[in-house]
Amino acid sequence: MGDTQHLTIGSKKPIYPDDGILKLYSMRFCPFAHRVHLVLDAKKIPYHAIYINLDKKPKWFSLVSSSTEVPALELVKEPGNPVLIESLIICDYLDEKYPEVPLYPTDLLKKTQEKILIERFGEFISDFFYLVQHEDSEQLVDTDLYAGLVAYEEELKKRGTKFFGGASPGMLDYMMWPWCERFASLKFTFDEKYVLSPERFPTLIKWRDLMLQDHAVKRFYLDGQAHAKYVDSRRSGNADYNMLYNEAKRVKLG
Amino acid sequence: MGDTQHLTIGSKKPIYPDDGILKLYSMRFCPFAHRVHLVLDAKKIPYHAIYINLDKKPKWFSLVSSSTEVPALELVKEPGNPVLIESLIICDYLDEKYPEVPLYPTDLLKKTQEKILIERFGEFISDFFYLVQHEDSEQLVDTDLYAGLVAYEEELKKRGTKFFGGASPGMLDYMMWPWCERFASLKFTFDEKYVLSPERFPTLIKWRDLMLQDHAVKRFYLDGQAHAKYVDSRRSGNADYNMLYNEAKRVKLG
Questions:
Q1: Burial, B215: exposed, middle or buried (Cβ in 10 Å; 0-12, 13-18, 19+)?
Q2: Domain that holds residue B87
Q3: Complex-level ipTM
Q4: What are A220-253's pLDDT values in tens digits?
Q5: Residues of B in contact with A79 (CB under 8 A)
Q6: Which residues of A touch B115 (CB under 8 A)?
Q7: Of the candidates B97, B108, B116, which has its C-beta nearest A108's C-beta?
Q8: Final residue in a domain of this structure, among A101, A131, A154
Q9: Which residue of A89, A97, A117, A158 to mutate against B (max B Cβ within 10 Å)?
Q10: Using N-to-C axis directions, what is the helix angle for B31-42 and B171-183, rounded to 10°?
């Protein structure tokens, strides 16, 4: 995964050789950017990851991508070096551009149904994290936070496959994963009650354990405690973007 | 456009001949449903429009589509009559399934860039209508409501074509249109200041006038006053879904 130092105001734009390799502007703890890392890694597409401090963005980044958002994918081989934004749109582009490891069903209707499930998962998850972060705990006691996840439990059970994508993870698996990985952090940041119930989600728990063995998932994986540590730093008003970088440096210096 | 009566609690599910024709569940004043009407009409795909009273949905609708949202497109020729939801996903499906009048560029990168502009327009428009409907007018005086539209003015000017899609409207044109049609209602519901400025948006105003001549736009068009009348009814707490139906009936009874 290389250097995860996040570039900040005053930093110089990193220079890369003219190697035609995609550049992904990312933030190490952003679940939307995580989606793009997963698709690139699943398809074994080489890329340079450039991490951005989102609170103090370097000036040159607005010249690369006017929206200054991550994820942003710079297509260095295309004329004018166009930059794509929006995680789902980037991932769909990659799937069509690099068809060797297809992540969608080939049938148009099945592909469309998969997109609907991806879109719906996004809505569940934004409600979920909004509630977790904004409601006070007393109000939360009566809220069925994981209600929106039941449809996915049932869907995977109905499919009877290891992954939503079949024998290997597909687009829906990867688009859900960044948040599913982060569910494990909620007991550290908030409360034990956010642990997925094995009675309610037996199929998704089996799925999670299988996903953890996938090479793309492994490549960008962080455990619940690491995610919680970052979230805690963000909640305290001082997001520790370079948490992993500094830890690695400390280990090196030993 | 046929019968625009909105079906409500207690209504029977309409019965259609086994004609293989798509069924679109819609609401006459919903801009998201409007998108699907435009794409179907642009491609001259026949369909049965079934209008739903969203405040008092008929029970049978939840058996057709568990989400009970509009737009919903029932694919009556596919096994199990699957139903698609989410306006952009439905429109993308239609474009691929019925390629005779293609609405996207064939080039993957250009198509992807069009999707980014569609996504961004959706974000601008949801902010726009949120502000218009929730902020009090004094706060609004200092807000540049149309700031997000400037990028589209510049984009179309740069392209130098009649439409974003070139010589005829493409997906971006149609996905933007429902809200652009509704801009003309804001001076009735709110204030004259919501009229698009010809100094600021000369290209988009020319575009709007050309769009108004498009056959798909004409087929589902309502003027600013009609949109305002519906919005006023909704704001008063009693959305007049059957406004057009009742007006047509009155005209008939003369």
A1: exposed
A2: 6-97
A3: 0.94
A4: 999 999 999 999 999 899 999 999 999 988 888 7
A5: none
A6: 86, 89, 92
A7: B97
A8: A101
A9: A89
A10: 130
